Amino acid sequence: MVGAKMAAAAAAASIRERQTVALKRMLNFNVPHVKNSTGEPVWKVLIYDRFGQDIISPLLSVKELRDMGITLHLLLHSDRDPIPDVPAVYFVMPTEENIDRMCQDLRNQLYESYYLNFISAISRSKLEDIANAALAASAVTQVAKVFDQYLNFITLEDDMFVLCNQNKELVSYRAINRPDITDTEMETVMDTIVDSLFCFFVTLGAVPIIRCSRGTAAEMVAVKLDKKLRENLRDARNSLFTGDTLGAGQFSFQRPLLVLIDRNIDLATPLHHTWTYQALVHDVLDFHLNRVNLEESSGMENSPAGARPKRKNKKSYDLTPVDKFWQKHKGSPFPEVAESVQQELESYRAQEDEVKRLKSIMGLEGEDEGAISMLSDNTAKLTSAVSSLPELLEKKRLIDLHTNVATAVLEHIKARKLDVYFEYEEKIMSKTTLDKSLLDIISDPDAGTPEDKMRLFLIYYISAQQAPSEADLEQYKKALTDAGCNLNPLQYIKQWKAFAKMASAPTSYGNTTTKPMGLLSRVMNTGSQFVMEGVKNLVLKQQNLPVTRILDNLMEMKSNPETDDYRYFDPKMLRGNDSSVPRNKNPFQEAIVFVVGGGNYIEYQNLVDYIKGKQGKHILYGCSELFNATQFIKQLSQLGQK
Amino acid sequence: MKLYSLSVLYKGESKTVLLKAAYDVSSFSFFQRSSVQEFMTFTSQLIVERSGKGSRASVKEQEYLCHVYVRNDSLAGVVIADSEYPSRVAFTLLEKVLDEFSKQVDRIDWPTGSPDTIKYTGLDSHLSRYQNPREADPMTKVQAELDETKIILHNTMESIGEKLDDLVSKSEVLGIQSKAFYKTARKQNSCCAIM
Q: How far apart are CA A185 and CA A607, in angstroms?
């Protein structure tokens, strides 16, 4: 048992693994869950609120819940019948509404026993409310356990997390950057963010060194998080960072680095058109908490009255860790994805044929001498074919899934000419000379939606060293309006840029390391399902985005004017004052990058690519909310309204 | 149109000293406010330093217009506004503020004063009142009323005009030469301004 624990801890900081372990422990009545234990699991009911649902669903499938004995899972605020002989595990936020409902459940004697788990820490007064309700309902003995789980964040990948989904408007980019915000409102926003980050580090089992830029929301988060960690460490009785929760021993030998970055240092990346699979899916499709929703049009229906218009079927797919294709290709450039699906399909067909062949041979048993002598050989083959059938079925399922998803993505690329946008923006962001005029692309009626054009123009405006002249700007504005764009986002970006110019040094998108990631080998043949005619085979250059560059400076202890005056916090140090002089001079092995104000998959992928080459180093990426360009532009538009 | 800051400074021999300032940074986002305020303080001081005594000027700095008035007695005021705000009103405001300030604060305190030591509290209310130039500045109000009166007068004159013609031509008192003179004068004075 100790061995398993050690192994789990030694595996590099996978936040997904840690949060899953914590969830499973909770579902096991707060006793560490051991795999392969004999005997049936105890049957139980799981009651959650929408926050709890969002946390559990990317991590545990319905089947996995059933394996843990959960026969029924229900929303807290729904009509629930009494099930008096079954224990209930609750997993909810400690809000007033939720507490009231739980007390009501106690009074109504719904279940045999109650295991109350709070996603983030419950206040003392609310705890007393529950105690009183239990007393009044004579149900005190039935309340078996009450736990603060400190799980108030959502893990989407081994190395990626977001703060929340349900109340993301509270902590959105807009919420943080709107002018009409009061001090108390800002405090609430910051406290919400800090609460989740605190839960994250409790689950991770580590106290980080914190670095942040000055004068931003990131700084305010840093100050509050440092304070909260510090207070908890000093509280000898209730410290969450000693003993068990750390897993077997410390988090490697060194503490991780937490880099808190404000969204405002880079507004171009969230608007960027992208070329890698996962980021594309997030940009052009409805992709949310690892689930993608597609609308598929079925064929025309013929009825006596004539053909009916196409009906759209909706299909949803979960893109999970067990999806081997996804894990391998979610960061790959799209043409590579298309190619790989094709290859998988061919390999599947070959294996399917092999099984068919063996089945038909068995059918000939007794008629063919050669067949009889091959029998024992074939038995072995058939056995292996049969045993690989589940694998084959799974392979087929994934091929179908990714064929559908990639096709949907390709339709968008072709209709909107997204490859053109991607290439042009890359040139703008890396300050390479532009071969086409920006005005031409904006005025081209065949290339892109009005939103695509606005994204492109905003990236140009943000990246320009000198703002365009009044006359040029009027020209662009007219072209954009003619193309159907709403100019509010531009209004906000103008203000942002004026302030950025005034307050701080300019950030560049630099092309510090440009190494080609290998040319794509073949042009798509027409036999392929993915006809990429007219779509460019673009090479992805490895170029560090601003967030990656900042992380690199801080993780490797490089001196750079951009990051030299970042603040430094160490919650474990006795003296409360921070200094800008880091005490630790060695490069970090583990780092967490957290973007206050929102992040996206492009940044995540850039960090993943950056750390790939570095042996023994790990990065986790987190953000206060995850948005695609459409959602971000909407917020910019609201901010730019007068 | 918007006012962002209003400050009173003293242009000393060797350096310019900030005596008192009021700010309205509510249109900036939470984390921008202190930087913007600092920027405005800095800009105000710089502008006064570079202006001569007994001068008025309007300086464009990025999106903002800084209006500065330095009096002969070295007392200076700076208003930072957006480009829409009427400069005439800004200077009226400065005149008024410096006048009031010099009456309330002893001259002897000016060279060594700072916002903490100076006892003058009128800036915040002036800044907030002048956000709307029409309300705050009687001259603007009168001018606006005059504009309206002018229009009324003009219309009235025009409507009277025909009657006058008739009256003049029908008059037996005015001589022929006077009538001719009136007709010529009318033609030449077709855009008579009524003031």
A: 32
Q: Are A161 and A200 contacting, i.e. CB atoms less than 8 angstroms apart?
A: yes
User: Is 70 exceeded by the pLDDT of residue A9?
Assistant: no
Residue from A502, A596, A636, A641 to probe the interface with B (highest B Cβ count within 10 Å):
A502
In the structure encoding, which two tokens stand for residue A513, read together?
């390391």
Three-point CA angle A19, A20, A25, nearest 5°: 100
> How confident is the model over A155-178, as a mean pLDDT?
93
With cut-offs at 50, 70 and 90, classify the pLDDT of residue B149.
Answer: very low
Find, among A520, A534, A517, the residue nearest to A419 by Cα.
A534
Largest CA distance in chain B: 80
Residue A539 pLDDT > 80, yes or no?
A: no
The type of residue at A492 is Y
Q: How many CB atoms lie within 10 A of CB A366?
A: 8
A341 near A324, Cβ under 8 Å?
A: no
Find the closest chain A residue to B29 by CA distance. Answer: A179
The phi and psi torsions of A525 (rounded to 5 degrees) equal: -85, 160
Q: How far apart are CA A464 and CA A473, in angstroms?
A: 12
Helices A450-463, A470-482: axis angle to 10 degrees equals 160
Q: Give the whole-angstrom CA distance, residue B142 versus residue B92.
A: 14
Q: Which helix (H) or strand (E) holds A102?
A: helix A96-107
- Hey, is A332 helix, strand or coil? coil
Q: What residues of A are in contact with residue B34 (Cβ under 8 Å)? A: 215
A7 has pLDDT over 60 = no
Other CB atoms within 10 A of residue A168 CB: 17
pLDDT score at B175: 52
The 10s digit of each residue's pLDDT in B30-39 is 999 988 898 8
Subunit contact A216:B31, Cβ cutoff 8 A: yes
- Say how far apart CA A441 and CA A444 lie, in whole Å: 5
Q: Which residue of B26, B31, B62 is in closest CB contact with A498? A: B62
* Pair B37, B64: CB distance under 8 Å: no
Residue A454 above 70 pLDDT?
yes
* Cβ proximity of A555 and A587 under 8 Å: yes
What is the spatial distance between Cα B149 and Cα A386, in angstroms, rounded to a whole number? 99
Could A501 and B27 be called an inter-chain contact, meaning their C-beta atoms sit closer than 8 Å? no
Same fold across A12-151 and A155-266+545-640: yes
Q: Does domain A12-151 have CATH number 3.40.50.150?
A: no
For domain A281-295+314-361+380-416, give the CATH number.
3.90.830.10
What are the residue boundaries of the structural domains of chain A, listed by start?
12-151, 155-266+545-640, 281-295+314-361+380-416, 418-503
pLDDT at B195 exceeding the cut of 60 = no
pLDDT at A513: 30
**Alpha carbon of B39: minimum distance to chain A alpha carbons (Å):** 8
Mean pLDDT lowest among A236-240, A315-319, A377-381 = A377-381
- B35 part of contact set with chain A, CB < 8 Å: yes
CATH architecture entry for A155-266+545-640: 3-Layer(aba) Sandwich (3.40)
- The crossing angle, in degrees rounded to 10, of helices A217-234 and A183-204 is 50
pLDDT above 60: residue A303: no
Give the one of A180, A186, A499 whose C-beta lies nearest to B32's C-beta: A499
| Partners of A323 in beta bridges | none
Mean pLDDT over all residues of chain A? 83
Residues 6+ apart with CB under 8 A from A578: A226, A567, A568, A569, A570
Interchain proximity B29–A501, CB inside 8 Å:
no
Q: Tell me whether B103 touches chain A (CB under 8 Å).
A: no
* Residues A507, A543: Cα–Cα separation, whole Å: 15
B89 φ/ψ sector (left φ>0, alpha ψ -120 to 50, else beta): alpha
| B162 and chain A in contact, CB less than 8 A | no
